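User: New here, please read:
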Amino acid sequence: SPLFAVLAVFDLLGALVIWTVLQNKPAIEVAQETHNDPAPQH
């Protein structure tokens, strides 16, 4: 059914977005730490 196909597509897109975010999270954190180096986080 079309509904099942749409749900499958959204499921794949959601997984791709989550995977991309998880893969890029360390790089984003490192970039933020480098950018905010003068300001101590602790």
